[in-house]
Design a protein that fits this description.
Strand content: under 5%
Oligomer: single chain
Number of strands: 0
Helix content: 55-70%
Low-confidence stretches: 63-69
Order of helices and strands: HHHH
Radius of gyration: 15 Å
């Protein structure tokens, strides 16, 4: 899996996931708040399967190290 999420995208996903999980734990928005696990995990991993399917990439382009040799 290659990273396909940029730093801002990952940060938003992590914050959103933590907020949703927090709402589920406090009982304010249970059980739907547990959906927050998905954005939290994708934010921590830096990889989104839906982005992969749609060909979206929000991370900056990394230089190919083989071409530098």
């Amino acid at each position: 899996m290659r990273t396909n999420e940029g730093l801002l995208d990952r940060g938003i996903r992590i914050i959103l996931g933590l907020v949703l999980i927090g709402l589920a734990v406090t009982g304010r928005w249970a059980p739907w708040g547990w959906i927050g696990v998905l954005p939290l995990m994708t934010g921590l991993l830096g990889f989104c399967g839906l982005y992969q399917i749609l060909g979206i990439k929000t991370c900056p382009v990394q230089a190919n190290k083989r071409s530098e040799m």
